Amino acid sequence: MILSEKHLAFREKLKEFSDNVVAPRAKDLDLNSEFPHDLVKKMGEMDLYGLFVPKKYGGAGLDTLSYAIAVEEVSRACGSTGIFFAAHTSLAVAPIYQAGNESQKQKWLIPLAKGEKIGSFGLTEPNAGSDASATETTAKLVGDEYIINGTKCFITSGHVADVIVLTATKDPSLGYQGISAFVVEKGTPGFILGKEEDKMGLRGSITSELIFEDCKIPRENLLGEEGDGFKIFMQTLDGGRISIGALALGIAQGALEYAVKFVKSHSISNKLLSRQQSIQSTIAEIGTEIEAARLLIYQAAELKDAGRPLTKEAAMGKYYASLIGMKATNTAIELHGMLGLTKEYPVERFIRDEKLMEIGEGTSEIQKIVIARQILGK
Ligand code: CAA
């Protein structure tokens, strides 16, 4: 596929932002485990959170392909900023846009798309990770309120979120059919911030435990119909996997660029590393794999924009981009030699950040289950 002039121009704009504004912050965000409030605000001013949302709902009225390009470009410089961007947009903006009614869109979609509010996605629980249908958090309807009880874990941006889109079941024995999707706002009594994780990578992003103890929310906070929650979340994850794929791709591209810079400026026996045939072969391999991942991800984005099924392609893009992303970041370190392990060069950050892409929003094993079911039938 060939990007249109419009998409190429958009990429240039994002590349400039990434190189000049995001990249200079990346090292400190990682070293200090600092959440990038400044970049979050700036990305809102650039209308990045509503790229695929119509203008009437506070978006930019562009498309998913533009969004994938934007996540890739931001992540090329900083994985932590990239994961915030991807989780907020794919996992909070998107489900409200897709499943919310008009008043829910007015209330939550517009401020989320404009970046006035921060959103999170609460699916994972201590006993419901890969098996998302094992949700134990309950929602009981009493009068005109749902009462939520349970714990969500590993929630991106949980501690800073204004709005959480979460799953809860009316009865865990009903399996996926008992699960509904709800919106819970920060400050609701009974919504408690639990521990914050101290992670190996993406250290500038926040990963939180969220606890709900008799947390009462209005009936109007139900997204879609009762029992729709699992499917709403699976559809949300289809879109989310495009952005995690784009994030993995961006980190891989960033690592390749640093590796190229290094091999073009360092020599062995008076011969530039870039002139050594074995190093050229390594660079060619990584470059080809990155391009293949890009094509898979852009294809999934185009399918989404065309309103066509994308479950298989999004899973393939995420699976493949994270797989080759680990190889690319590892190779980038090896090309730097011992220097690659030091904080003097950014490639050690890239590999730590990339690892989440094989785990978050469905592990590689889950992606393979999703892909195999699409190929073989269930
Ligand atoms: N779109 C729409 N509907 C879907 C769907 C999709 N992509 N996938 C499944 N469904 C539907 C099925 O058609 C089925 O409905 P019917 O019975 O009406 O046909 C229903 O949902 C149940 O589907 P399955 O039987 O396939 O469900 P399953 O229990 O076998 O699970 C799974 C499937 C793919 C393994 C799923 O559990 C899964 O994706 N697990 C991984 C979860 C995950 O990615 N978690 C990470 C979340 S990220 C997070 O929480 C933190 C953060 O901030 C990033």
Global structural class: alpha+beta
User: Which residue ranges are poorly predicted, with pLDDT under 50 across at least 5 consecutive positions?
Assistant: none
Strand content: 15-25%
Number of domains: 3
Radius of gyration: 21 Å
How many strand units? 10
Assigned CATH class of the largest domain = Mainly Alpha
CATH superfamily of the largest domain: Butyryl-CoA Dehydrogenase, subunit A, domain 3
Report on this structure.
It is a single chain. The chain is an alpha+beta fold. It has 3 domains: 5-118, Acyl-CoA dehydrogenase/oxidase, N-terminal domain (Butyryl-Coa Dehydrogenase, subunit A, domain 1), CATH 1.10.540; 120-229, Butyryl-CoA Dehydrogenase, subunit A, domain 2 (Beta Barrel), CATH 2.40.110; 233-376, Up-down Bundle (Butyryl-CoA Dehydrogenase, subunit A, domain 3), CATH 1.20.140. 52% of the residues lie in helices and 16% in strands. The protein has 10 helices and 10 strands. The chain has helices spanning 5-31, 37-45, 64-77, 79-99, 102-114, 229-263, 277-305, 311-336, 347-354, 364-376, and strands at residues 119-122, 138-142, 145-156, 163-169, 179-185, 191-196, 207-218, 222-223, 267-268, 271-272. The strands form 3 sheets. The protein has a 4-stranded mixed beta sheet. Helix 3 (64-77) packs antiparallel against helix 4 (79-99) and helix 6 (229-263) packs parallel to helix 8. The structure holds acetoacetyl-coenzyme A. Residues 87, 91, 121, 123-124, 130-133, 154-156, 176, 230-231, 234-235, 237-238, 311, 360-362, 366, 369-370 line the site of acetoacetyl-coenzyme A (CAA).
